[in-house]
Amino acid sequence: MPKRTKSIPVKTIGDTLNTGFVIGKMTFKDLNEFKEAAAAHRDDYHLFFLQEKGTTSIEIDFHTYTIQPSAVVYIHPNQVHRMLAIKHARINFWAINTDTLKREYLSLLEDINPAKPVSLTKEAFSIISEAVALCIKLSERTHEKLYQSVLKDSGNALVALVVSQYLAHATSADGLSRFESITKAFKTALEADFNTAKKPSEYAQGLHISTAYLNECVKKTTGYSVSHQIQQRVILEAKRMLYHSDKSIKEIAIQLGYEDEAYFSRVFKKNTGVTASSFRSKNHD
To answer: Which of 126, 150, 226, 273 sits at 20 to 30 Å (Cα–Cα) from 214?
Structure first.
């Protein structure tokens, strides 16, 4: 049974040299050698894993992924995740904070939603592995006059290589239709404002279009209405807190922008088929 805390734990970057970027290589026989990763948490940084050997099972926002060579995983700062199993794994990892990321890369990372593992071709894996090895060597050269700049730039280059792999599996921005562009802008706004903005009209106003047109664009692109998308984003956050924290249902409702706990409970049940208390109990039996 996962151990719950009052709030979802947030891990900070282990950056003793204040570079905004940390990189390394880990080898584990099983999860017992990496117990701290088994506890559900968020990070205050952008996290990447490159699986070199063995298998790793990871849960990201209630979805389980089994990662094998050769794959790369990106995890958003807001995603709740934990390791479920590790079997004779060798993993490269790197973490970079938002202030260190180039603005253009940050924007592209925000578009990877939801983030999940990507399989790499032999060539792509080779290039990224070589880049990781170089970054690790550079991270050890603390005597360099421009150490922080070198590490920051090398870290951003490594992020760019990974982002390019995600982009290869997605539609390019140039190829987006008008409907897709508006839906993308809506999802960006939703991620920022779902705690406070619950009405489609609020998002339409921010995008300077009519509510009807926003709904048409989103429904054409995703198959679901704007209201459905808003509620699903809120429900995901509610599930995170119900499963991973000890906050009361009333506290969760208030944090998600619902002053009326009963109304929040009706919304949750309508979207999940179970009450919030039943969801919490069922997932912790």
So the answer is: 273
pLDDT in the model for residue 19: 87
Residues 6+ apart with CB under 8 A from 234: 194, 198, 256, 257, 267
Place of tokens 């706990």: 261
**Domain match, 73 and 139 both:** yes
Series of mean pLDDT values for 10-residue runs along the chain (285 residues)? 66 82 92 86 92 94 91 91 93 93 87 82 95 95 92 95 86 65 90 93 94 93 92 93 90 94 93 91 66
Query: Do both 16 and 133 map to the same domain?
Result: yes
CA distance linking residue 136 with residue 52, whole number of Å: 15
Provide the number of structural domains found in the chain: 2
Residue 161 shares a structural domain with residue 181: no
pTM of the model: 0.74
Instruction: Give the 3-state secondary structure of residue 4.
Output: coil
Alpha carbon distance 31, 85 (integer Å): 6
Interstrand relation of 63-67 and 21-30 (parallel, antiparallel or unpaired): unpaired
Burial of 32 (0-12, 13-18, 19+ CB in 10 A): exposed
Residues 57 and 28 in one domain: yes
121 and 185 share a domain? no
What local confidence, expressed as pLDDT, does residue 5 receive? 59
Conformational region of residue 23, where left means phi above 0, alpha means psi within -120 to 50, and beta covers everything else: beta
Query: Pick from 255, 260, 244, 252: which is nearest to 276 by CA?
Result: 252
Q: Are residues 33 and 161 in the same domain?
A: yes
Q: What is the pLDDT of residue 8?
A: 81
| Cα–Cα distance for residue pair 16/42, rounded to 1 Å | 20
